[in-house]
Write a structure and sequence with these properties.
The chain has about 475 residues and is α/β, with parallel strands linked by helices. It has helices at about 1-20, 30-40, 55-60, 65-80, 95-105, 130-140, 155-170, 185-200, 210-220, 265-280, 335-340, 350-360, 365-390, 415-425, 460-470; strands at about 80-85, 90, 180, 205, 225-230, 230, 235, 250, 280-285, 310-315, 325-330, 395, 405-410, 430, 445-450. Bound molecules: pyridoxal-5'-phosphate. Pyridoxal-5'-phosphate binds near residues 184 and 186.
């Protein structure tokens, strides 16, 4: 009987021992044996519950003193890797499984508590419970056919819900048949670039400050992308008259990214006049149009001329970038070209579209945006007052709106202030990073682009303090 027990435990050990290639010489016998056993448990070669050979058997097998094995077993029992059961030997503990989990799965990337880079948001505020309820309702109501491939232009329920939402909240003229669902603005912009290219458009003017990834989408498609300078009235659209007829222009009219100005009423009209006169196309990136803090947001440009403006909206700022959900409202004459450029495959999960439809139609989207607006407004006000009090030479540029602010710095100080910010663990961007590479000079000088929406409520006071200290 004793022999039988020893044999089954020994065979488990023998297997593990072969895999371990135990070489205990020179490594300190007890330490070496301990590490070899831990590794066997971690890697799963010794499963939880496995009985280990007796100390005598193992000592004989390895040619070491029995006391070395006994001490090693006792240490591993104390550490929680093994359990000693009176009368039935030593076993691999079940807890050891939990102990090995962190080693197996890669640690999630850690965000700095002071990450104020544009593009991020306070992910702790994602409405998880509301989203789960929307998911439950949407999946319960979905017809069986919803689990198949979807319409490449997007689910009609969502396009209808967005048409209502966009006309109510942003003054967009939106026929559901002209809405295309995309996997983020970036995706939609690429589709439009291809569609316009196919129509013979070779030039899309862009704002002289903006994100390089969007400039790259256009230039990768072979577009020439001249820059429009920015002043307090937004993009200087009069420069568009110099372009060849039938060109396009990509703008952020509600809230210039990143400088934060609204396109003036005069320029809105001048822009649309240009488009009508020359057969031009305006691409309106309304990325954060819901977030205006001093008054109701000015409606989208598209509502004034749906035949010359392509409207882009996204859930990335209002809810979360992880959704990869965005929408494009396309002028009727461009729809066939956009359909061709989008291709015949659906690119956004049908189930996510149905959940988002419920989120919009149930009023949860409005409530969420209202809550976020309230919080972002307060943070922006705190930022402005802290700078007024502690760094009066630093000005916040642009309107009270959006999720980020440009802090205009004394001339020539951008690099040194970025270094000071980095020393304080702050992740912020320099304004010059957003400058169009072909645009001359840097009319807005030195600046920081700081996202005041990206850290949690609890981290915000310290992040604000560091930011103000870095620029003071
Ligand atoms: C200027 C601008 N447009 C659009 C977007 C949204 O892009 P996407 O929908 O691809 O996340 C962003 C997000 O950071 C942005 O900064």
């Amino acid at each position: 009987m004793a022999n039988k027990r020893t044999t089954s435990a020994d065979s488990a050990w023998a297997q593990a021992g072969i895999d371990l290639h135990l070489d205990l010489r020179g490594s300190g016998l007890r330490a070496g044996l301990g590490e070899a056993l831990r590794e066997a448990v971690r890697s799963g070669r010794l499963a939880p519950g496995t009985r280990l050979p007796s100390s005598r058997t193992l000592a004989e097998d390895l040619g070491i003193a029995r006391s070395t094995v006994t001490e090693c077993y006792s240490a591993l029992v104390e550490e929680g890797w093994l359990v000693a059961r009176h009368g039935s030997g030593t076993h691999v503990a079940h807890r050891a499984e939990a102990a090995r989990a962190p080693e197996r799965s890669a640690a999630p990337p850690r965000r700095s508590p002071h990450e104020l880079e544009p593009g991020a948001a306070d992910y702790a505020e994602f409405p998880r419970a509301v989203w789960l309820s929307a998911a439950r309702r949407a999946l319960t109501a979905a017809p069986h056919s919803a689990f198949g491939y979807g319409d490449p232009l997007g689910r009609m329920e969502l396009r209808t819900a967005l048409a209502d939402y966009l006309s109510r909240v942003r003054g967009v003229y939106a026929d559901p048949a002209r809405i295309v669902i995309t996997s983020g603005f970036h995706h939609g912009l690429g589709i439009l670039a291809r569609a316009l290219r196919g129509q013979g458009v070779g030039t899309i003017a862009v704002e002289a400050y903006g994100l390089d990834i969007y400039r790259d989408v256009l230039s990768d498609d072979g577009m020439s992308i001249p820059a429009l300078e920015i002043d307090e009235g937004g993009a200087q659209v009069d420069a568009l008259s110099a372009l060849e007829p039938g060109s396009a222009a990509l703008l952020t009219p509600a809230h210039q990214f990143p400088l934060g100005f609204a396109l003036s009423a005069e320029r809105r009209h001048a822009l649309l006049d240009w488009a009508r006169r020359t057969g031009g196309v305006v691409l309106e990136d309304d990325y954060d149009g819901e977030f205006r803090y001093d008054r109701r947001p000015v409606g989208a440009l598209q509502g004034l001329d749906p035949d010359h403006v392509v409207y882009f909206g996204t859930a990335s700022k209002s809810v979360a970038p992880a959704l990869r959900l965005a929408w494009v409202v396309v002028p009727e004459h461009l729809l066939p070209a956009v359909e061709r450029a989008k291709g015949r495959v659906d690119t956004v999960s049908v189930l996510d579209q149905l959940i988002f439809t419920d989120f919009v139609t149930s009023g949860a989207f409005d409530r969420h945006v209202r809550g976020r607006r309230h919080s972002y407004r307060a943070r922006r006000e705190q930022l402005v007052s802290a700078l007024d009090a502690q760094a009066p030479e630093v000005r916040v540029v642009g309107m009270p709106a959006g999720l980020q602010a440009v802090l205009q710095l004394p001339e020539g100080t951008e690099a040194s202030i970025l270094e000071a910010a980095a020393r304080r663990g702050l992740v912020v961007s320099g304004l010059s990073e957003f400058r169009h590479p072909d645009a001359a000079g840097s009319p807005w000088g030195s600046g920081l682009v700081a996202n005041f929406s990206s850290v949690s409520d609890s981290a915000w006071p310290a992040a604000l303090q560091s930011l103000v200290a870095a620029v003071s």
